[in-house]
């Protein structure tokens, strides 16, 4: 059982035509609906919803406060390695980029943990490139217990693994895994993923199934905005989410909205999304699913982040470094992409408080969710 058969039934061109033919009546009908489905979500994503930004924002705000209260979770990425055996057109870690490669040793991991802990974080997202032989299961099995001693919640964004591997990592304290499909358009996917195991679209697409079967507490989805039409990719992500929620109802789900950022060897043919469209997308997701954790990273500018915080976002990173050793070392390696919001965690906590929200440093303890 996996999402693949459902995915194959979806005709991208037909989705495009239906989405772009939504009108104002469709949008108004969905704004008053209690439980919108993927078809309704399509109207919220459509160009017809753009004039309704104020209504979308108000509804998103209300739903978020009803479900999550006045809270904002904080997390920070911990880059363990920039080794990668893939070539992706948009990423500074691509194997063809000539850069100093670095994988943190146990001592260096300890130093990073202490530096992150000193900034107040209790929830970390472990990030690596995708290098099966040098930064694979054995490396993770050694690293996780070291890191778990310092933090109560561990998420990972690494190469897709097998169900068995996820079970093993879960037993070592892994709580959440983020695996972005990047784009649900197979043709665009092939154009941007040029070499390595990541070229296998279906293996990646079925990763959330393996996570659900392994009983991972939280599964993160998303499309990389800029690779293809964000409206259509978001609709496909919603179909993926609904399938997973039915099949693996014990897991929680989160969603991110990464927009392509400049990086070494950067990409020119991106399909940009405006700031207003990002607001539309975040509000549309909140209205579509009031339970979903929506996360916003430091890719976005301080101005935009400050204005988006109350609308639907429930979790943010702050003071992020996208390079291995970036918190403790004075000579870190090359970054994966440039962040825009450079404010430290303490400053962001002040910003959050000024918005009437409470910074939360510890995520739910997984023991409460099972
Ligand atoms: S996006 Fe991921 S897999 Fe692709 S080059 Fe960057 S680190 Fe490697």
Largest sheet: 8 strands, parallel, barrel
Whole-number average pLDDT?
A: 92
Please state how the strands of the largest beta sheet are arranged side by side: 1-3-4-5-7-8-9-10
Helix content: 40-55%
The global form is globular
**End-to-end Cα distance:** 23 Å
- Based on the coordinates given, report the CATH architecture: Alpha-Beta Barrel
Uncertain stretches of 5 or more adjacent residues: none
Number of helices: 15
Count of structural domains: 1
Radius of gyration over C-alpha positions, nearest whole angstrom: 20 Å
CATH class categorisation: Alpha Beta
Q: Under CATH, the topology is which? A: TIM Barrel
- For the record, what is the CATH homologous superfamily label? Aldolase class I
Commentary on this structure:
The protein is α/β, with parallel strands linked by helices. It has a single domain (3-363), classed as TIM Barrel (Alpha-Beta Barrel). Helix content is 40%, strand content 13%. It contains 15 helices and eleven strands. The chain has helices at residues 4-9, 12-20, 24-31, 38-45, 53-68, 106-118, 137-148, 163-171, 186-192, 201-205, 207-213, 230-247, 275-288, 302-308, 345-354; strands at residues 71-81, 87-88, 123-128, 153-157, 176-178, 193-195, 218-221, 252-256, 293-296, 315-317, 358-360. Strand 8 (252-256), helix 13 and strand 9 (293-296) form a beta-alpha-beta unit. Helix 4 (38-45) packs antiparallel against helix 13 (275-288). The longest helix is centred in the middle third of the chain and has 18 residues, at 230-247. The structure holds iron/sulfur cluster. Residues 84, 86, 88, 91, 93-94, 129-130, 198 line the site of iron/sulfur cluster (SF4). Residues 70-299 form the Radical SAM core domain. Its cofactor is [4Fe-4S] cluster.
């Amino acid at each position: 059982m996996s999402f693949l058969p459902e995915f194959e039934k979806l005709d991208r061109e037909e989705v495009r035509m239906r989405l772009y033919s939504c009108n104002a009546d469709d949008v108004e009908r969905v704004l008053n609906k209690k439980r919108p489905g993927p078809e309704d979500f399509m109207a919220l994503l459509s160009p017809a919803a753009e004039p309704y930004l104020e209504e979308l924002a108000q509804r998103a705000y209300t739903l978020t406060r009803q479900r999550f209260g006045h809270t904002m979770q904080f997390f920070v990425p911990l880059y363990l390695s920039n080794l990668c055996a893939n070539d992706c057109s948009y990423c500074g870690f691509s194997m063809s980029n000539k850069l100093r490669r670095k994988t943190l040793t146990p001592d260096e991991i300890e130093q990073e943990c202490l530096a992150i802990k000193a900034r107040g974080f209790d929830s970390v997202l472990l990030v690596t490139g995708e290098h099966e032989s040098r930064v694979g299961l054995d490396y993770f099995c050694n690293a996780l217990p070291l890191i778990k001693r310092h933090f109560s919640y561990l998420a990972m964004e690494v190469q897709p693994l097998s169900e068995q591997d996820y079970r093993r990592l879960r037993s070592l304290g892994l709580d959440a895994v983020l695996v972005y499909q990047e784009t649900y358009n197979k043709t665009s996917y092939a154009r941007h993923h040029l070499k390595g195991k990541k070229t296998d679209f279906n293996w990646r697409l079925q990763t959330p199934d393996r996570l659900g079967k392994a009983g991972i507490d939280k599964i993160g989805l998303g499309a990389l905005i800029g690779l293809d039409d964000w409206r259509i990719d978001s609709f496909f992500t919603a179909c993926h989410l609904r399938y997973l929620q039915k099949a693996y109802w014990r897991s929680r789900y989160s969603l991110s909205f990464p927009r392509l950022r400049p990086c070494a060897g950067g990409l020119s043919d991106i399909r940009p999304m405006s700031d207003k469209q990002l607001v539309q997308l975040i509000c549309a997701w909140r209205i579509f699913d009031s339970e979903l954790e929506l996360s916003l990273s430091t890719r976005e500018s301080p101005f935009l982040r400050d204005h988006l915080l109350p609308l639907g976002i429930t979790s943010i990173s702050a003071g992020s470094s996208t390079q291995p050793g970036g918190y403790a070392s004075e000579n870190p390696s090359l970054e994966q992409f440039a962040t825009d919001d450079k404010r430290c965690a303490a400053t962001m906590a002040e910003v959050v408080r000024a918005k009437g929200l409470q910074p939360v440093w510890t995520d739910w303890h997984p023991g409460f969710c099972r």
